[in-house]
Amino acid sequence: MNTTEVKGTGLVSTRTFVKEKHPEMYNEWLKALSPSAQHLYSGVIGSSDWYDVETMYYQPLKKIADMFFAGNEQLAAIEVGRFSADFGLKGVYKVFLLVASPQALMKAAKRIISMYYRPVDVEIKEIDRKSLILTATRLYDKSEMLDYRTIGWCVRALELANCKGVNYQKVPSSNSGQFSVKFSWE
Fold this sequence. Notes:
three-stranded antiparallel sheet
């Protein structure tokens, strides 16, 4: 897998998650990071700059799982992804959420995901009235944690677009470099 990068806004929402949800443990979380991540997360994160996914995105998320979710990487990733959707989908996006169909929202999510990670391919397929399948490049090939962060973001985005009973189910992918997930709602 090529070196994958994440735009700084993903790091900002990760830091903000810890500051807002676990403020009493923020400094301990920061100290648990690698020296390079500590330096970055304790300073100014360039929201339009690009950063290495493993050291600056996966490892800090793994520390969140270890410290606040008893090591449950899937739950941690879902919750941070949900928080990231709340954090990022405001302003002009908030208006879009009020008028967009879930299908239009997920087509926009395809563009959003492509703007915040590189290289990444995202495809929306099997679009029905109450479901669709998202297939995307795995951001980190040693763990599904970042897949679940994207899933959490998508679930919360659909909820913000007034979809009720949003569920997800991972779908087998013939390509080990991708993950697929079916989202459905009432």
